[in-house]
Amino acid sequence: MTSIIPARTAPSSARPAPGTSGTGPARTVYAPLAPRARLLPSLAAVYRAQLSRARVARIPLLFVATFQSVGIMILMRGVVDGGAEARAVVAGSSVLVVAFVALNLLAQYFGQLRAGGGLDHYATLPVPPAAVVLGAAAAYASFTVPGTVFTAITGSVLFQLPMTHLWVLVAVVPLSGAALAGLGAALGLLAPRPELATLLGQLGMSAALLLGVLPAERLPEPVGWARDLLPSTYGVEALARSFDARPDWGLIAFFLAICAAVGVLSLAAATWAYRRAAVR
After folding, report:
1. Judging by beta carbons within 10 Å of its beta carbon (0-12, 13-18, 19+), is residue 218 exposed, middle or buried?
2. In this predicted structure, what is the pLDDT of residue 224?
3. What is the average pLDDT score of the chain?
4. DSSP codes of every residue in 256-273
């Protein structure tokens, strides 16, 4: 019978210890283990793998997420004429594209990955847990860029808003995407069943829809508190302020800084949830 010796415990050679004769017992010398992969190369490898895996579903995802947000803006056009309310609708609808992919779909993905044993595959790889979470989150968030830009431009045309400062999306999309992707990954990894992960992801997207698209001035005060807890709120506020004739860049930077801090916390929570799920 052929025995298989794991590479981790396989001796590289068996030779006499120094200073002893060749007739004595041989001392086993083990080969050194390879160093653990670093975070950035591991992150890039996971990102490319996830991007290639999800490339087939890219067009349907972009169409559904973008069509949903544009449809909401068309419906709101009948009740909102302009001003601060129009800016809130366009900003909320644009960030909603990010929420649909980064929160909803990522929660479903990690829920199915945990239920199907896919985490066991990642656990055998010499990559940091943060690289797995960040790589998957970045890949899913990348799909939101074309839809978010298209939604923002379409909304600006519908509500006759200036497009001079739409370059703020360069900061809003990755920061909101990181915050929502971390939340979606944590929901999917902590949910005991994939069905529950899907439900939580859809509830999170619904919260982003109701609390992000509707103007904050029209929300009851308790609902406004819930809006402040939603990670995407600060990305919406930063984008909405950029439509002003003279944007308050200090306030915009403040909202983006909060969004970045929330993103770090949500991704840290997702990394902890990944370690917790991988050892079970």
Report:
1. exposed
2. 79
3. 80
4. HHHHHHHHHHHHHHHHHH
Query: Alpha-carbon distance 183 to 176, whole Å?
Result: 11
Q: What is the mean pLDDT of residues 133-158?
A: 86
Entry field: residues in the chain = 280
Distance, C-alpha 58 to centroid of its chain? 16
User: What is the rounded CA–CA span in Å between residue 268 and residue 254?
Assistant: 21
Chain centroid to CA 36: 24
pLDDT the model gives residue 1? 44
Work out whether strand 27-30 and strand 11-15 pair parallel, antiparallel, or are unpaired: antiparallel
Tokens of 147: 């839809």
CB atoms under 10 Å from CB of 75, counted, come to 12
DSSP 101: I
Tell me the mean pLDDT in the region 76-103.
86
Nearest to 93 by CA among 163, 156, 42: 156
